[in-house]
Give the backbone structure.
Amino acid sequence: MISLEQHTDHYFYLYANCFVTRGFSRSTIIDVAHKNLYFIDNAYCDLISRFRVDKIGAVINSFEAQKDVTYFLEFLNFLQANNLGTFVQDITLFPAISLDWDHPSKVTNAIIDSRNINHDFEDILKQLDDLGCLDVQLRFYEKTEISYLESILELTAPTAITAVQMIIRYNALIDSMDYHRLVKKYPVLDLIIVYGSPENKFLEQHDDVREVFKKVLFTTQAVDSCASCGTINLRSMSIPDSVQGYAENVRHNSCLNRKVSVDENGDIKNCPSLPRSFGNVKDTPIARVLEDKDFIKAWNISKESITVCKDCEFRNICSDCRAYTSIPGDILSKPAKCTYDPYLANFA
Amino acid sequence: MYIDLKELALREAAKMHYPLFYNFIIYNELLEKDENYSLTDFKKFNERLDCDIEYQQPSKLISKIINFNEID
Amino acid sequence: MEKSFLRINKNERSMSLQHIDLKKKELVVKRNGQTYNLLDFNAVLERRSGFTVQDLVNDSQVLEESLFHEETSYHKEHVLKEANELIDFIHYYIENTSVKVIGKYEHRKLNKLKVLYLATSLGLSVPETFVVSTKADLIRLTKEYCNNIITKAISDGVYLFTNLHGYYSYTERLTLDTITSKLSTSFFPSLIQKEVKKLYEVRSFYLEGAFYSMAIFSQSDKATQTDYRKQGKAKLASRMVPYQLPDATSALLTKLFQVLNLTTGSADFMVDEKGEHVFLEINPVGQFSMTSIPCNYQIEKIIAEKLSCI
Ligand code: SF4
Ligand code: SF4
């Protein structure tokens, strides 16, 4: 238990990588270093903002009722017990973390959708690699053969792509162990999700040396097209691994930033579900699309500019969706598939 | 992952010839390669960047076509 | 901002020196079938060593065979000396013909004791430092500093990986108990310092006049108290957050970097309960990413901009 007398001349320093987000009905503290999330009352959110200005003694003196002092002490205990902050003599030595975000790659992630057509994957992956793309998700709406998936994975060998994810339709003729073998053979293959499966199943391989999880997931969920995308719930939120990841979420669009997509017709888009095509990959270089201001615009729609979301305490870890919005045609309205109501603080 | 660190024992007679911190060297056995994975599997040399790159999980959700709520 | 670059990694066996021509200003290397005149590059960032003996000697195994009668190692040492002289010149030549240089080859190694001496003479506070070689002296120091002394390497600690094992040495606290039970009466002259009771550690990356500092709080876990790198059993990662050096410390540290002729490097401090910043050492080839990433300083971008803005 903290004794307040001992610290009246100190400041309480909430570590700079613990970020407070004020929502309409409550606030969150996101501890990026330890990947934890805490809910706090908005009154405490106001209190935290005083920590940078007032010493503990001054904060205590401003309380009128003794019970406020008790609550304050409890709150400090909570912060310290969870290692979210510490007492310091000079708060000016502990500046805030900059949330500026940048990345050396012109494109960091991509979605490629396929249905019955054979994209020129060699060309597309080469283009993505030239743009510095790290993560690629391939979504197939028809049954695919293992050998076909393998031929695509082979194409990543000369690239610097660091993760490929494949989302494929269940095929009763393929033994589940075949997917497993694929994951083992290609370390670049981060995840296979097989939808439309008879059961939910989870094959997991754990590598102790690098603490890497390799996953093959089977889900009964039905997927027919990109229209299934845009799910938002607690499971689609994640606390980033780094301050950079958090900063990107705050400053940029958490789904579309530095993303390019090729839809099932070969159209280059921000995401396959968005209507606007910026040219077909057959005749338009992806690099040229990136020069289009309209294409880049979506990258910078941050949550602060989205109605409802701007009042939500999850906004800085929520992954957003700009394709399916609650007011169709209004790109700045709340994601249609989100059931969270920040004014009531519950999921519908 | 838990690493078992052991202390390296110096021979009594050797101690006087070493700096003090040699009395406190710790070591661990490096894990043997898993038959399915080897360390080198997780990186490869890339010509364009002129260096090794490591395979990594994506830093964020690329799309939300799968509802993870329905899986577990 | 897109520039072509060449990365010369240590032990990149495929690289070989073709020739140097002082008159034509050529320093030509061959790598992966391509030849490059390294003097054509106008900016260079140096971290640790670029060229190594392996890049010059095709088959270093040959040097293991003896050559002279009755003498087994002279030739080897002699050729290595010749190689190092040349490597020294290669770096010097590249640095002198480049427009922009960050980090110099000659600065890749600093003498910790020299730096401590300089730091004190400039007015920085440093831990009380001794080099002793007898148990009697150690016991005297333990008593004088109430069991709060530590030992560490004067140069580098042990950091070795064999095929089967990894070996490491860290900063160690010496208690009267360990001294009497574990150590010999006399030993190789060793560095002893009074332990600083730290509230937190500070790592300051210096780049051309600016500091990018980070505070490291590791006190909450006993295992990391003496040396925060020892996180083997620690549950929570240390808290690494942006830090602003007090003006007085920052002014003295800038002086120290200037006196040492360094344009970049990483300085370590311990901050004690009184708020005193105790200077420990400068690592001239400091890893900036370990400061840059947790504090989001984007130092890699700043360096890239400095290298390309010429
Ligand atoms: S309201 Fe907006 S920010 Fe909040 S959870 Fe829903 S989509 Fe995310
Ligand atoms: S914007 Fe929506 S539909 Fe498009 S990829 Fe993101 S989540 Fe999916």
